[in-house]
Write a sequence for this structure.
């Protein structure tokens, strides 16, 4: 594709990285037509992150570049709540109170953002994307090195790229994205990303459709779809990276299991750049997105520093004047706001919501004791096993991701964990092999006390 347009027009750059490559995509929007100008893919062995980003800037010195970076969102959890329909300004505090109940950690330790999935019968369905603040630190550091304008979720970038490559993509649907490092299953409601399930996989073990690993992967995909009944019967769009044979194999196996899939093909070699493409597209429009980095990252360009540096005194005076005006206006506004709140509090809907909130708060007090759970897991870990992750979600089985050199250690870990008080039905839900590290990777799931599902008796 050829570049056109004036020098004053902005170009949109999407940046992404995996374990092997730095990737980028440069997009131009002119007369409501989106064009891909250039794709970049450079081995991480050849260049560092800062120099890679600088190379792109050097290629477009005479153009204004708006940049965004994709965030690997494996650590992001999605929570779903239902509240009475109201305007979005009123929803802010209501969603915050419900999020505090849903989150496994104190809300002060979390970063979250939410979207409305839809409204029906006076109720609003809300999806909340959240991650522990500490988990965002490395991405913030990378964003500052590149001095990008924004950071977006990798899964939302995939959704945006698929939307760009497909015609008339609307309503509810699911996306299965197959790449070299993992497999992502995206659930979309009314065009909004509602949930993401990530499956770790070693492509070298998935070369044969008769392989137990690829059979297990397809079974996991089928079960994940069944566990999200809202989208269970929605179309499944399958998009694979440059390894087309893998996509064809998964499509065949899923169809054999009764899961109908629709293949999506990219043109002009875009498939390998799908994440960076979607990231660039997200910077070129104002479509809603989950912004987990709003309060922890802001672009700090040299130009911005120079503009603000010589105006500190004027700024201080302006702030004082604005503060005086704000205090005066706030006093009058608060009186009106209090009267409006008192009127809302007398409605039956508010009374019903208060009761729901009271019940949920009582339930929240019975949440799992995370430190105690971690202690039980640590006490059960045998020699040679490394615990890599812990997933705790209400009404779902606890999931522990781990790795080991000797597969026997995996079974020893399973047996030791099954003997812990409060732990029941420990199972190996997935298993793989890391060819680089030459070790077995696996996930154990189990029920824990009353946190997952009701049982007749507990240990």
């Amino acid at each position: 594709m050829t570049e056109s347009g004036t020098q004053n027009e902005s170009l949109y750059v999407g940046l992404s990285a995996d374990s092997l490559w730095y990737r980028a995509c440069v997009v131009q929007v002119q007369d409501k037509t989106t064009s891909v100008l250039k794709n970049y893919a450079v081995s991480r062995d050849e260049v560092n992150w800062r120099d890679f980003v600088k190379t792109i800037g050097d290629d477009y010195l005479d153009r204004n570049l708006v940049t965004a970076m994709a965030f690997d969102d494996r650590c992001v959890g999605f929570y779903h709540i239902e509240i009475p329909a109201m305007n979005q300004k009123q929803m802010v505090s209501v969603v915050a109170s419900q999020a505090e109940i849903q989150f496994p950690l104190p809300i002060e330790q979390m970063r979250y953002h939410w979207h409305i999935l839809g409204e029906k019968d006076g109720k609003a369905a809300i999806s909340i994307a959240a991650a522990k603040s500490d988990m965002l630190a490395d991405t913030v550091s990378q964003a500052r090195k590149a001095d990008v304008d924004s950071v977006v979720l990798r899964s939302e970038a995939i959704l945006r790229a698929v939307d760009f490559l497909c015609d008339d993509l609307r309503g509810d649907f699911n996306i299965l994205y197959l790449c070299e490092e993992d497999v992502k299953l995206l659930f979309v409601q009314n065009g909004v990303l509602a949930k993401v399930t990530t499956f770790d996989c070693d492509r070298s073990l998935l070369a044969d459709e008769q392989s137990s690993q690829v059979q297990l992967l397809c079974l996991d995909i089928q079960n994940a779809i069944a566990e999200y009944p809202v989208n269970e019967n929605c179309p499944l769009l399958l998009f694979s990276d440059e390894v087309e044979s893998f996509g064809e194999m998964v499509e065949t196996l899923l169809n054999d299991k009764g899961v109908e899939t629709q293949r999506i093909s990219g043109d002009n070699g875009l498939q390998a750049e799908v994440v960076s493409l979607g990231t660039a597209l997200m910077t070129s429009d104002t479509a809603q997105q989950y912004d987990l980095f709003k309060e922890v990252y802001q672009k700090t360009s040299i130009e911005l520093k120079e503009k603000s540096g010589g105006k500190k005194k004027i700024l201080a005076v302006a702030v004082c004047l604005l503060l005086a005006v704000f205090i005066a206006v706030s006093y009058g506004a608060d009186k009106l706001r209090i009267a409006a709140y008192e009127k809302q509090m007398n409605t039956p809907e508010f009374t019903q919501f208060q009761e729901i909130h009271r019940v949920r708060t009582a339930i929240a007090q019975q949440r799992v004791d995370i430190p105690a759970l971690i202690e039980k897991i640590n006490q059960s870990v045998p020699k040679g096993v490394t615990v890599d992750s812990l997933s705790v979600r209400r009404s779902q089985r606890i999931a522990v991701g781990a790795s080991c050199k000797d597969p026997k250690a995996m079974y020893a870990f399973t047996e030791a964990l099954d003997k812990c008080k409060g732990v029941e039905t420990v199972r190996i839900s997935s298993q793989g092999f890391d060819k680089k590290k030459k070790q077995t990777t696996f996930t154990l799931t189990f029920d824990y006390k009353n946190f997952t599902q009701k049982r007749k008796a507990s240990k």
